[in-house]
Amino acid sequence: MKKDGLTNTFGEKVEKTTLKGCYESLPEATYPKQDMINDLVGLTGKSSTSVRNWIYYGMKPASPEHREIVENYVKEKFGVSLVWTE
Known about the structure:
Blueprint lengths: L3 E4 L5 E4 L2 H7 L6 H13 L3 H9 L7 H15 L8
């Protein structure tokens, strides 16, 4: 963050920066739910819409290969076995 050292009326040194400098100094945000969707998109090669349908509507992936990928991901990430709704 770029700062310009200035003094205030009491003679204390005050750091100044831009609003953009403040924004850029913040830590990167994390979005675990979106990260899970992105992980499954990357592993299966399916669209984020398909992955969201699997998650939100309980749809089972049409491909047995994709079901296996998702089941392995859940087992590795969460330590549980996945149950598909029929």
